Amino acid sequence: MTKKGDIEKYLFMKITVHNLIYSYPNSNNFNALNDVSFEIDQTHNFVIISGASGSGKTTLLYALEGLITPQQGKILFDEEDVCQMNQKELASFRNEKVGFVFQNYLLDESLNIVENVYLPAIILGKEDKKTYIKRAQELLLSVGINEDQFKKKPTQLSGGQQQRVAIARALINKPNIIMADEPTGNLDSKNAIMIIELLKSLIEKENIKVILVTHETKFYEYGDQIITLSDGKVVKNEF
Ligand SMILES: Nc1ncnc2c1ncn2[C@@H]1O[C@H](COP(=O)(O)OP(=O)(O)O)[C@@H](O)[C@H]1O
Ligand SMILES: [Mg+2]
């Protein structure tokens, strides 16, 4: 396989979602995703999934991340169907292709921030320690965290800084795509905008696609595609 970075211009992946149906176990066959279809082509790289609370945004992201398996439908990343992957393929998809960002940052309080950022690289185990420490430090600098913070534990940083650390961690294994579920939900509006702008800047800098789940209409202007859900269905898909 050609490694990203080895080629001059990486062609962004295309994502095709076909007739997705998902109901949680013990939910009386209530479809949290109820026949969801859409396409994200190579030119749309900051994609917003919007909709009211309970509309199915997080469930859709779980499906795209391969964390749940829909009862019906397909999710194609280029030609590869996430719904058909076995456990081993799913693990490598999640570790190598996708970077995750959460509302609550999910940093490990017992580790300093450099260690937090390189943790997913240890799990992957492809490089030596020196290489991933160096990349972790470079990523932290690139998301606006200075060297004098490197030895600090997550709780010694502000919410906005912790989310920057989480974004650096999401990038450590050079993913093709970042998926972020309400990443600004715990931030004040100034920090929230800075995080959205940081995510947007990564598209060119790291050659990635970003899928952002948010119900905040003020961020829609940043998106080049906005998919709106209501009751588990796509009700709008705007470019
Ligand atoms: N673990 C779960 N078990 C059963 N139902 C769930 C679970 N998580 C979410 N749901 C239901 O699935 C629907 C979609 O939820 P969710 O994807 O979390 O929406 P959103 O992220 O847009 O707020 C809602 O009706 C919600 O109650
Ligand atoms: Mg949600």
Describe this structure in words.
The structure is a single chain. The chain contains 6 helices and 10 strands. It is α/β, with parallel strands linked by helices. It has 2 domains: 148 residues, P-loop containing nucleotide triphosphate hydrolases (Rossmann fold, 3-Layer(aba) Sandwich), CATH 3.40.50; 71 residues, no CATH class. The strands form 2 sheets. It has a 6-stranded mixed beta sheet, sandwiched between helices. The protein has a 4-stranded antiparallel beta sheet with strand order 2-1-4-5, with helices on one face. A hairpin with a 2-residue loop joins β9 and β10. α3 crosses α4, α4 crosses α5 and α5 packs parallel to α6. The protein is globular and about 50 Å long. Adenosine-5'-diphosphate binds next to α1.
What is the fold's blueprint, element by element?
Blueprint: E1 15-22, E2 33-40, E3 46-50, H1 57-64, E4 72-77, E5 80-81, H2 87-96, E6 98-101, H3 113-124, H4 129-142, H5 159-171, E7 177-181, H6 189-206, E8 209-213, E9 225-230, E10 233-238
Parallel strand pairs: 3-8, 3-9, 6-7, 7-8
Antiparallel strand pairs: 1-2, 1-4, 4-5, 9-10
Helix pairs in contact: 3-4, 3-5, 4-5, 5-6
Bound molecules: adenosine-5'-diphosphate and magnesium ion.
Magnesium ion (MG) is lined by residues 57-58.
